[in-house]
From TrEMBL, chains A, B:
PROSITE patterns named among the record's database cross-references: HTH_LACI_2 (PS50932)
Region span, Disordered: 337-358
Family matches, as Pfam families: LacI, Peripla_BP_3
Keyword Transcription regulation listed: yes
Record SUPFAM superfamilies: lambda repressor-like DNA-binding domains, Periplasmic binding protein-like I
Name of the featured protein: LacI family transcriptional regulator
Top-level taxon of the source organism: Bacteria
CDD domains: HTH_LacI, PBP1_LacI_sugar_binding-like
Segments forming domain HTH lacI-type: 3-57
Amino acid sequence: MALTIKDIAKKCGVGVSTVSRALNNHPDINKETREKILKAVEEDGFIPNNSARNLKRTDSKTVAIIVKDIDNPFFATMMRVMEEEIHQEHYTFFIQHVGDKQNEVDAALELVKEKRLRGLIFLGGYFQGQEERLGRIKVPFVVSTAELPDIPDKETCSFITIDNEQESFYMVEHLCKKGHKKIAILAAAKDDCNIGRMRLEGYKRALAEYKIPLHKTLIRHLDKNHAEYSMENGYQLMKELLKEGTTFTAVYAISDLMAIGALRALHEAGRKVPEECAVAGFDGLSYTAYYIPSVTTVVQPVEEMAKESVKSLFQMIESKKGVPGKILPARLAERQSTLGTGPNASGPVPVYNSEVKR
Amino acid sequence: MALTIKDIAKKCGVGVSTVSRALNNHPDINKETREKILKAVEEDGFIPNNSARNLKRTDSKTVAIIVKDIDNPFFATMMRVMEEEIHQEHYTFFIQHVGDKQNEVDAALELVKEKRLRGLIFLGGYFQGQEERLGRIKVPFVVSTAELPDIPDKETCSFITIDNEQESFYMVEHLCKKGHKKIAILAAAKDDCNIGRMRLEGYKRALAEYKIPLHKTLIRHLDKNHAEYSMENGYQLMKELLKEGTTFTAVYAISDLMAIGALRALHEAGRKVPEECAVAGFDGLSYTAYYIPSVTTVVQPVEEMAKESVKSLFQMIESKKGVPGKILPARLAERQSTLGTGPNASGPVPVYNSEVKR
């Protein structure tokens, strides 16, 4: 059984506020009383620190992060940054992983009931069509790296994301400007209605704007039963495309992990990157800067997204009012995998990569 | 406020056990009563599923994973596997991340008090000298990927790890057998007393066994203020070694991430791998199979370690008895980064890599 502040107060023959002062290192307390309380606490194995207040459970200062894809290195970095920010607010937090077959909103509803949370951050996930149940989440929440539909019955919710369609457009435009006309895309599953679809839309719009006809054979979709944006899946899609013998001079993968898989498949087929084929990714994983060749990618503002997510959440916890969603800009990092490629290229491919030398 | 089973029972004018039967879909209940209870539950927004039982908080079936380094892709895979295993036991779980400056045992003691857990898994961390406080953790726990010292006052604790010294020995032996005599090691900080030290000891023992003198300049330690086994740190150590101009024909990094950083630094210096230098890592991250060249490494049995950790934990929860620690074998995966290197090499370096074609 956990000790409550009341138990300690009773044991030491003092008031609850005195125990609270002792636990919080408040100067306004008799030294002997303080020592007596800390000794009592020590004997029962209770650790007096920031989370002491949590013992009085209705005052628990805890938030949770609900993460859909814990394997994703992109999310790992975000969780680390979020942790730092949440600790600065003197809150405790924990991470709840939601499996493939679980619904993230169900998980949230349960958590709020069980753990008496002050707020939630969804890291990834899919929210279209779940408006009614999202409205039943009693605490403020922020959706991070995805957009949130309008929720009629809920004010204290917000989101932080990038413009996936527009950033994808910029990447494909980058390839078009180099003169590439046969640009393959390694895309999400055909029925995807999430960021995968938006990145594909950006690809289509860029080709249209540069008057490049759309080749259906160059649009490679993930299998809907194995729809992870993984190295393995990028590798397999690339293998299939190579096997078919369709001509292409550039490959755009909608995730960095898929781009790395594609690079490996091209290497095994003896196709030199960037000399014989340009490759571009999306996300800005740190691996892409260390790969050989280093990979051109859309760098998502990971730190800023994590910080803004926490900031919006605490704004809502404190003000009990909604905060507008934010769309942050990403950055195109041109690296070796597209350098000097295409008919409009000039000069040799440099080996050095300023991205690594931070 | 969360509804308790009592509240629902009162509202419906039935006993607590009847509510429990309704929530658990038990056949032994009147259909109308069941519908009445589920309707009451629905009206108050309570989700009737596996975790319904958790409402009666003393019966909460929850375990926690305390993870020291959430950025580590090795741990991410383990968490995913652990999640699957824990759900099979019909337990809920959450992940608690412990920051660089936090102590993992303190975090555990707090969690157990606050959350009424049934058990804990430590993923990584450092436990020497913390025996007394570890003994105060009231629930069973398993230390995963590290060894646990003897804890006099605690029976229900266990560990799962590999033999870091021996596996490291095998990797360096692999390089020695190829005839390499100048083998640099990218090692942990000088004052490390954890797996970093054990991997270094394996290196030293292999050199001694193969009668290769130890060159101090070839032992490169991480800075103790930036001691993460990261790509960035591997890159920096390699840069420094290259700058000094010391001769070496092989580099052994004590982590795959450091090996990838080193490979990038060698590439930028124009040193061809494996032709002019062999490179080996440790851990078996999936990236190593996709890197160009693919990286020879010690593959830790990630899935098995995760499964065994959960198994040992539930054995202890059920039997209330201790379970002996387990040391599992790892596997040396020879890939392109060491193939055909050293004076004893024969034949050309193959491009294909069977590791990827799973």
